[in-house]
Amino acid sequence: EMLEKGGFDHFMLKEIYEQPRSIKDCMRGRIYPEEGKVQLGGIKEFAEKLKNIDRIIIVACGTSWHAGLVGEYLIEEYARIPVEVEYASEFRYRNPIITEKDVVIAISQSGETADTMAAIEMAKERGATIFGICNVAGASIPRLSHAGVYTHAGPEIGVASTKAFTAQVTVLTLMAFYMAQQKGTITTSKLIELLTELDNIPEKIQQTLESNNIIKEVADKIKDSTNCLFLGRGSGFPVALEGALKLKEISYIHAEGYPAAEMKHGPIALIDEEMPVVFIATQNSSYEKVISNIQEVKARKGKVIAIVTQGDTEVKKMADYCIEIPDANEAFLPLLATIPLQLLSYHIAVMRGCNVDQPRNLAKSVTVE
Ligand code: AGP
């Protein structure tokens, strides 16, 4: 087993460190930065249909559902197609309106999640086209789908999903660009710019991993907390949800992810000197807004941990701890900002003596309802 862990103490840590490679594998043969072109062989027979679809419904569970939320931002932003993101378990039981004009994207690491499979079956019966995004080749979900794109992240052993999540987000990014290309909602020069940057994301993830020691120090400061809030805006919101889920799953600390602006509608009541609040506070379109949310937390003596853009000075003046990530286009923020949150949960869980790879009560894939 030590050999399988490649010298790492846990599969989860190994899988976190594999991300520069797994994202590269996921993009291989699919992006052509110099030409400004995306090729997705798995869905190319639907290339024409994509020009005229009115709506996309994404169905998934857990971490895969968080990837779906990131997908919603990207597809709406670049391909200008309305997207709804549904928990598969809710969708299958609420008689949703689905027509043969709809495309349903089902996201699943394992490809065996019972609720996601049932949601696909229902959507198929009602005539929708199903695209699967899956990590395990030949699993049930790819077989149930009309077409799909594999994430190619390699086997994920840790129960808490890490590299599969960032690979799902990568595939959704590629799909958003592909659909935009088909629909003509993006120029070739913009695609050249975005793909050139995307091509460099594995390198930036590598740089982010180098903050491991700082993250470990932060973990030590908050490891004894009983609660933790994660806040972000825009595509930083699903990142916050994913950060909170990771912490819950492996450290058993109660954590909530919230859109930062929603804080004042309830969660703000929880803030006192015992409450760590993790902010996604990178320099993008919502930077100034997030800064005022940080001030609101500091005014109530909350402990602020901020994920910031390298070289940031403003947030540093307010936050108790800052973790830097390299600057990047907003489209790629979720890929980078997720990494420190994975490491933070990992170290906290290890410090609390938890079974990181196999947390209590959880199974790697939920094949029953
Ligand atoms: C992730 O850390 C979880 N263990 C869990 O939420 C998982 O993402 C969910 O069960 C969905 O699994 P799937 O991607 O294999 O369908």
UniProtKB/TrEMBL annotation:
Residues 46-185, 218-359 form the SIS domain. GO terms for molecular function: carbohydrate derivative binding; glutamine-fructose-6-phosphate transaminase (isomerizing) activity. It is found in: Cytoplasm. It comes from the Bacteria. Keywords: Aminotransferase, Cytoplasm, Glutamine amidotransferase, Repeat, Transferase. Its main location: cytoplasm. It catalyses: D-fructose 6-phosphate + L-glutamine = D-glucosamine 6-phosphate + L-glutamate. GO terms for biological process: carbohydrate metabolic process; fructose 6-phosphate metabolic process; protein N-linked glycosylation; UDP-N-acetylglucosamine metabolic process. The active site is at K364. One of its GO terms (cellular component) is cytosol. Its EC number is 2.6.1.16. Homodimer. Catalyzes the first step in hexosamine metabolism, converting fructose-6P into glucosamine-6P using glutamine as a nitrogen source. This is Glutamine--fructose-6-phosphate aminotransferase [isomerizing]. The gene is glmS. The chain holds residues 244 to 612 of 612 of the full protein.
